[in-house]
Design goal:
Blueprint lengths: L1 H24 L6 E6 L5 E5 L3 H15 L5 E3 L4 E6 L2 E11 L2 E10 L3 E2 L1 H19 L1
Antiparallel strand pairs: 1-2, 2-6, 3-4, 4-5, 5-6, 6-7
Helix pairs in contact: 2-3
């Protein structure tokens, strides 16, 4: 009898989890190919979009999140701006024709690594990118 009661519950979990996983990341399905966190708390996502669009969305998103003006280097596809006393750097690297790597790093007072801020900025950029695709 216990097995029969558990079966619908386990099926619901099994069916919901793959569909909900992108929502848990805060991004839409099909935007992120993979993601990782480097030793220095730099958050990296391989995105299934070209570098040009990802760079444009990243700059706009950082501009909206920043508490002051941002510094942009379009040749290197790097932008830095202040968010709540933390210096956040976003960069976009071409991976191939259909995907790119998005990196976000954050440092407070120039020395202390601020992983939570970097993660939050990455998730906001990915959400903005998904919205632009939709």
């Amino acid at each position: 009898m216990r097995t029969i009661v558990r079966l619908p519950f386990l099926l619901a979990i099994a069916l919901c989890t793959p569909a909900c996983f992108p929502a848990l990341l805060g991004v839409g399905a099909g935007v992120v190919i993979s993601h990782e966190v480097l030793e220095n708390n730099t958050y990296v996502a391989q995105v299934s979009e070209g570098a040009a669009l990802t760079w444009a969305i990243s700059k706009a998103s950082l501009t909206h999140q920043a508490s002051g003006p941002i510094t942009v280097d379009d040749d290197l596809r790097t932008a830095t701006g202040p968010i709540d006393g933390t210096s956040v750097t976003v960069s976009v690297e071409t991976y191939d024709d259909k995907s790119c790597r998005l990196k976000v790093a954050a440092r407070k007072h120039g020395l202390l690594i601020d992983g939570p801020t970097a993660e939050a900025v990455l998730h906001k950029i990915l959400a903005d990118l998904h919205e632009a695709r939709g």
